[in-house]
């Protein structure tokens, strides 16, 4: 019954694409090329397993990433340095079972050592109140709204201060200690498979 959060594996990309495109109107559809690009370039691309099956995924990008999302560019115009959750998808049969909270805890643990702000958006159409409440209960606040020009969808632009970031930056600068748990997720997988 435990939830395991781990780095995505290349052979899972088709399953992740299907999961994304079955998520409904609160998640924009993707194609295989976009999933491949996330796999090849995203700073954070992790999946959740529950009972040995894929339960969801989360894609995150740092503020310096090359990313064409208008929501990402909105944050870039309004925030100096941030970690952006591009998308989180939880399989419908796993919603309400803690997978989303496990993802956010893992993403926050990653982000707070590297960025002062954790950001995401919530679409305001399609009964967004449960999703906004989830984010609010996790410490996010709305810092603005944005209408996506490519779809006309209005999004609540949300942010959460990473309260540990200032201490980490002041203590360690840009060089975190050489500890396995501090490695960027994708780097850790590459190094462990090379050994």
UniProtKB/TrEMBL annotation:
Residues 3-163 form the N-acetyltransferase domain. The keyword Protein biosynthesis does not apply. Its EC number is 2.3.1.-. Keywords: Acyltransferase, Transferase. SUPFAM superfamilies: Acyl-CoA N-acyltransferases (Nat). InterPro entries: Acyl_CoA_acyltransferase (IPR016181), GNAT_dom (IPR000182), UCP028520 (IPR016890). GO terms for molecular function: acyltransferase activity. It comes from the Bacteria. This is GNAT family N-acetyltransferase.
